[in-house]
Fold each of these.
Amino acid sequence: MGVPRSKIPWYPKINYDKCDLCDSGPQCLKFCPHRVYAVKGQPKKLVVENPNNCVVFCRSCRRVCAPDALSFPEKREVLALIKKLRDY
Ligand code: SF4
Ligand code: SF4
């Protein structure tokens, strides 16, 4: 996209009020092949360990999250930001 990945704010945000780590292990972590997620701490908690590994405009892992605990930015806003950064 002509812009360094680290400048593009696209990655999942976890709603900890909804995330229950899933009954059979974190489905989002199992689903995503890009090692975006990790489970850390005691008590265990899902974290976005590698936000820049998230594929820009992908939202696929949202589908495997039954409690709908994952959200993403507005695509339109991120596209506008990318265009702006590219113009400089
Ligand atoms: S799929 Fe949803 S509920 Fe399960 S660990 Fe991921 S964010 Fe949490
Ligand atoms: S949106 Fe896509 S790339 Fe990003 S964490 Fe989810 S499955 Fe992985």
Amino acid sequence: MTTRYLRRYGDATRMNHWFVVLMFLAAALSGLPLLHPSLYFFSNVAGGGSWARILHPYMGVLMVLGFTLMFFTMWRDNLLNADDGRWMANASRMLKGDKSNMPPIGKYNAGQKIVFWMFGLSLLLLFVSGFVFWRPWFVGFFPILLRRIAVVVHAASAVVLVLSVIVHVYAALWIKGTMRAMTRGTVTENWARFNHPLWHRKMTGGE
Ligand code: HEM
């Protein structure tokens, strides 16, 4: 029997996703040495402390620009609905292997949707707060109290983003066959039928 595939992402979406991943790694590895002295060794990746400090904001802005493109093509599919409440209520049972109470899932499950909005919120806060203390360009426009608040917001949002990415990557690796969606752009019909039955029905016209 031949395996049948369904298209999940176009080439431009996938290239942009991997661009965002690269910029995330660059921003994270140049930002962590600025967060705490124990993480200073990460600055070697950028070529030393000064380069980490200079490059970090540019990498961050590029990541936000790439994600903004993803956001505007995907936000509709990530709106939460009543079934997502049921999904969350039964998520702990699903993690133990019991999927009997899970509602039928569309293009994304509730976990993916929550991670999507965590990405959006943390990146928005990182972007806005980062400008407030970006020396030497913008810092002079803002009072010292606002700059201090911005530093705390920036650090807290960075932690939320990193944790969200860890959950995102773990889920992508945990559900067998998912990585293919972002490496080839396609998934097997069985993967879709098993993990996203409503999306499968939409894509196959109810076959
Ligand atoms: C090495 C790191 C990463 C890997 C391996 C990875 C992998 C994947 C995979 C396999 C999918 C397809 C999931 C599906 O269609 O069901 C996906 C979707 C997606 N990824 Fe990533 N990803 C990574 C990092 C990131 C980062 C850093 C961001 C943004 C900050 C991001 C944002 C997204 C978004 C928005 C989607 C669309 C799915 C959704 O809206 O939930 N990814 N990723």
